[in-house]
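Quiz preparation item.
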């Protein structure tokens, strides 16, 4: 068998070679979209181009990167001639959008109906469409286009949003007739009058002469799979000109001095060798992992260079933190004897692995446990199934559950619709919200067990989905109405999730800026639904791993601020899980993850662990 050569980190980047007017960076949270977008904008401006950098990322830190205040107006970056920047606040845009739609019906429709409409407009789909509403002007305003050679966007619209905006039909009539009461048509109520502008914007996105989409990923199987899905979804609706950038690849030289670095390098190279076929034909660039924080112009100008100077070992010790290990949280959980444990977080932070580790640790402590996951990669369930007494493993198939839910909605809400109405409903049911609702319904079947044993759930729904279920005549209110007799006692799934004595929500994040901000946003979303997260787990920490490589040691020092932010500002309880040399796959390694210690000292303020 031929040995695959390690990926070479080249200085020349294809994604900025002969760039078109519009450059869109898209990818999962934490992969480095903002840093790459900022570095690209600076590089183009340094070449004498007139550049506008636009961020639509809810966790935008463009201003922080440049060290200036930007906000929702075009701001000249004085330190870079030719560069200006703009941050579109998606939440503010979404609120203005909601006010525009809800304002005319407030005081006309019953309060309960108005609240239901507001909740339907509170989710990610509304935020996406409101942000798209803001930046379509940037794609279609002739005066603005004449002022810049390039507009660089940090965060592109999803294929779902573009597909919705491409659909023909009278959205207002559909909603006014009471047919659009599923998950995502509500946000489209105010779009009809601007449809010509949106059509022009979508045409610009699909034009390879004007637009290039840059898919950003890490050298990790999960993020590469996500990038492949994004590529196929966008290509299917006509956005063909795409480039792949794999960010943060550990240089081979670091592996020579550190067993942990050697293991990380091997894992990354394997992920690249097994890259999804859909990505293999794309022009691809590889960006080396840097030791420094990507803040300031010097750092941005270094990002797209091939490599840093040779490092070797570093004699300076890695700072340590007085934070509990995962086993400390598990001991507190086990003391309850039973309950529902939900691990939540964005993709790529390791919640599936940690859910399995928590489940196995509870079994090891003598408790019966049901571990249920909606992870599309079923290898975890296959690895665990039947391997330990008192452990039950189930896997919810999101595709099967979503297909079942869609069919049920079409058979009920869609049975009396005409062809056009049914087509709109079918499109709505292809939204991300639909899958969340379908998976939650499947999870609800497992929740009942938590009164007798531990039920550990991976990949939980967002707070918006829970609110939507509760606000649209869902199960909870109907049961409450039927059980109005004060002598009758009942518990709905929502009530169980809101009861801290029955449910513990563990938020999983990485010690990096974007994942922490996204976890904080998820926590706020859950709190709106009356659900208070019990603890945060900071996963794959270099501080906890104590690496020897100079590059990794410097990155470990960069984690300190984010870990302190979690402990001091966001979390009631925290746990720190180290980055491991061997991936925690299989029962033995997962059990080790549940009691992997690390040396700590009180150099950083303690988290609240009482």
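Solution:
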């Amino acid at each position: 068998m031929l040995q695959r050569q390690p990926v070479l980190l080249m200085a020349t980047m294809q994604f900025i070679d002969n760039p078109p007017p519009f450059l869109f960076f898209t990818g999962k949270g934490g992969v480095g979209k903002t840093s790459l977008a900022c570095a690209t904008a600076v590089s183009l401006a340094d070449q004498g181009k007139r550049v506008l950098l636009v961020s639509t990322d809810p966790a935008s830190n463009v201003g922080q990167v440049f060290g200036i205040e930007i906000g929702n107006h075009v701001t000249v970056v004085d330190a870079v001639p030719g560069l200006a920047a703009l941050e579109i606040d998606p939440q503010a845009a979404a609120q203005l959008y909601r006010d525009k739609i809800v304002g005319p019906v407030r005081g006309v429709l019953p309060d309960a109906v108005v609240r239901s409409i507001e909740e339907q407009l509170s989710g990610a789909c509304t935020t996406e469409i409101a942000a798209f509403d803001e930046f379509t002007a940037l794609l279609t305003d002739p005066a603005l286009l004449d002022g810049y050679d390039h507009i660089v966007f940090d965060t592109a619209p999803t294929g779902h949003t573009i597909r919705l905006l491409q659909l023909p039909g009278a959205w207002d009539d559909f909603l006014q007739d009471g047919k659009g009461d599923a998950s995502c048509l509500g946000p489209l109520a105010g779009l009809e009058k601007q449809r010509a502008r949106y059509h022009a914007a979508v045409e610009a996105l699909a034009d390879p002469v004007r637009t290039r989409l840059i898919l950003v990923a890490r050298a990790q199987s999960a993020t590469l799979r996500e990038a492949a899905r994004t590529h196929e979804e966008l290509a299917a609706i006509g956005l063909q000109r795409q480039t792949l950038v794999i960010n943060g690849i550990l240089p081979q030289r670091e592996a020579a001095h550190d067993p942990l670095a050697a293991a990380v390098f091997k894992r990354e190279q394997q992920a690249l060798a097994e890259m999804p076929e859909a990505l293999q034909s794309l022009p691809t660039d590889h960006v080396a992992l840097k030791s420094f924080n990507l803040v300031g112009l010097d750092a941005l100008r270094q990002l797209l260079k091939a490599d840093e100077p040779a490092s070797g070992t570093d004699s300076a010790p890695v700072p340590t933190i007085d934070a509990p290990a995962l086993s400390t949280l598990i001991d507190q959980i086990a003391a309850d004897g039973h309950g529902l444990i939900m691990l939540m977080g964005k993709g790529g932070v390791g919640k599936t692995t940690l859910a399995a580790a928590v489940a196995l640790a509870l079994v090891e402590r003598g408790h019966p446990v049901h571990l249920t996951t909606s992870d599309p990669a079923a290898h975890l369930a296959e690895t665990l199934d039947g391997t330990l007494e008192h452990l039950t493993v189930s896997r919810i198939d999101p595709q099967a559950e979503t297909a079942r839910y869609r069919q049920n909605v079409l058979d009920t809400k869609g049975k009396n619709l005409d062809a056009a109405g049914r087509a709109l409903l079918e499109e709505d049911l292809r939204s991300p919200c639909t899958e969340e609702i379908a998976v939650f319904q499947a999870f609800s079947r497992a929740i009942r067990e938590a009164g007798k044993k531990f039920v550990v759930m991976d990949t939980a729904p967002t707070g918006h989905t829970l609110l939507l279920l509760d606000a649209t005549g869902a199960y909870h209110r109907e049961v409450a109405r039927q059980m109005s007799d004060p002598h009758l006692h009942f518990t709905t799934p929502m009530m169980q999730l809101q009861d801290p004595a029955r449910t513990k929500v563990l938020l999983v994040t990485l010690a990096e800026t974007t994942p922490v901000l996204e976890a904080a946003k998820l926590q706020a979303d859950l709190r709106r639904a009356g659900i208070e997260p019990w603890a945060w787990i900071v996963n794959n920490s270099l501080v906890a791993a104590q690496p020897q490589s100079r590059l990794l040691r410097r990155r470990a020092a960069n984690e300190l601020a984010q870990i302190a932010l979690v402990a001091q500002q966001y979390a009631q309880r925290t746990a720190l899980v180290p980055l491991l040399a061997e991936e925690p796959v299989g029962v033995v390694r997962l059990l080790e993850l549940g009691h992997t210690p690390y040396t700590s000292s009180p150099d950083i303020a303690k988290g609240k662990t009482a």
